[in-house]
What does this fold into?
Amino acid sequence: MDEAVLDVIRNIQDLPTLPSVAMEVMTLAKAPDVSIREISECIYRDPPLATKVLRVANSTFYRRGSQEIETLHRAILMMGLGEVIGITTSVSVLSLLGARDSRGASMRASFWNHCVATGLIARRIDRKLGMKSQGRDFVGGLLHDIGKIILDGYFHDRFEQACELSSRRRCPLHLAEQEVLGTTHMEVGHYLTRKWNLPPYLVDITLHHHHPDKAQFRDLTALVSMADLLAKARDLSCCGDTPPFVLKDQEAWETLVKLGYPMDGLDVERITFEIEDIAQEVEAYITTASEAAPEAAHG
Ligand SMILES: [Fe+2]
Ligand SMILES: [Fe+2]
It folds into this structure.
């Protein structure tokens, strides 16, 4: 990374920090013997967060059957710890970095649309391939491009130049960023996710999602990378990053083939058709995860 840019990032006093409860949940989740009770009690210490997590857990994205999930304890039992931690992370990041923020509204809107679309598509592919990523697919998709938010916020003019260059040349944005800024959204995202003490798989995805074969968590990173490409194919890209591509020639696809996933059974045309309505789903997810809590949750 360009030392001058890294220095500026290191010295940004108001670099966003995740709410303490979200950080604590992430730390707790790393412990091998953590109990459901410890996790749910931790989330309940932030009542608006707990309410939002329950609202998302009861939304059409997760809910199975007609019975309402009324407590976090029950949510963890029914959905699994991974999914609930995934929802907690996504709700915290969306509130922190403002999917509904009016500053830089159009960049932020297209940024979050792209990231939520990537998360939702990653979940679908995860199920098709039987990967059982337990919520890490969605959160990985949601956060893969998080470095762009920092570049846009603190190096706005140069970041815009990079976006413009990427769309003019029809080249990947990170190549244009390297040329204009001397760094990329992957390096900046890597710095931020480490600073936030996020789990290693997220640190890995932010750094390697454009070259998943280099990742430590290769299957998850390749999954997110493929979802990222499919989101772009459905016009849910952001920041001018729309190079043409053939999915089966991409490193993400090749990596998943190498890892032994049944890619032959994956019908690209069918997936593309199935995600036709992804834009409405994205809107519904952001609304559900961002709405202010009407009242504190209990239990
Ligand atoms: Fe990216
Ligand atoms: Fe992306």
